[in-house]
Design a protein that fits this description.
Largest sheet: none
Bound molecules: fe (ii) ion
Radius of gyration: 24 Å
Shape: flat
Number of helices: 10
Number of strands: 0
Order of helices and strands: HHHHHHHHHH
Strand content: under 5%
Structural class: mainly alpha
């Protein structure tokens, strides 16, 4: 079976690996003066200066259709800023699109490594993958109807992509097993649930009640994803903590791919 994350091995990252060397290093560090007498306040000031000078991560592109231009003008006359909704729709589109890739990666690990009792099934992962794809379609359709370009990377899409950069890195890392992958998917699903909730509030606030009703159905599906991923992960951790190999994983592990 694939090595689990909690097996004992030659991990040398801790100071206790070599008590003699670590005592030497500690003594040497205490004997020397710091190379710089400052503290973290200087770098904080530099970062504040950069933040003040920065123009932000980007902008929302202008509407691409005449209907979109007209709608934007009407909304602005009414005192609202329609680009906020477009920005957040762009964020959801980016996240759902990435979600499809994440579950494709999870399916690849399931195929190669197998699952465990109470762990993810092919049907379960495929169901979530298809939901993410349909949510991407829903948001894309909404953007198009509002006269926006659904292929544009909006500022919030950029922010969420940077914030969640580690998730696809875990999913695609061959050293990290299916259980590790579920830990990353849990982060994604928690974020996804919170962000759909905010998008629904925003949609209702700007008078798009029909869209908000459709988004609520997406949120209902996301709540199920979260529950499924949490359950799979929890059973994997519990099984491993019993100090026995995951029997189901052994039983269902397919033959090597090459
Ligand atoms: Fe999801």
């Amino acid at each position: 079976m694939k090595k689990t994350t909690s097996d004992i091995g030659m991990n040398r990252t801790g100071i206790a690996t070599s008590p003699i060397d670590s005592a030497d290093i500690t003594q040497a560090a205490l004997a020397r003066q710091p190379s710089h007498l400052g503290d973290e306040s200087l770098i904080l000031k530099v970062r504040q200066q950069y933040a003040l000078e920065s123009e932000g991560v980007g902008s929302v592109p202008p509407p691409v259709s005449l209907k979109g231009v007209a709608k934007t003008a009407v909304d602005m006359l009414k005192g609202s800023k329609p680009t906020v909704f477009i920005d957040k729709l762009g964020e959801r589109a980016a996240f759902e699109r990435t979600g499809v890739r994440l579950y494709q990666g999870a399916l690849g690990k399931l195929e190669a490594l197998g699952s465990w009792e109470g762990g993810p099934t092919r049907e379960g992962l495929e169901r979530i993958l298809n939901d993410e794809l349909s949510h991407f379609g829903l948001v894309t359709e909404a953007l198009t109807k509002l006269g926006a370009d659904p292929t544009a990377v909006t500022p919030s899409a950029d922010v969420v992509a940077v914030a969640s950069m580690g998730i696809p890195a875990v999913v695609s890392d061959p050293r990290m097993n299916l259980r590790d992958t579920l830990s990353a998917l849990l982060v994604a699903e928690l974020t996804d649930n919170a962000c759909w909730e905010m998008l629904i509030e925003l949609a209702r606030g700007v008078g798009h009640d029909t869209l908000a009703d459709r988004f609520q159905l997406a949120l209902d599906a996301e709540a199920q994803h979260l529950s499924m991923v949490r359950g799979w992960l929890s059973s994997g951790v519990t099984l491993e903590a019993r100090a026995a190999p995951m029997p189901q994983a052994e039983a269902t592990r397919p033959a090597p791919l090459v």
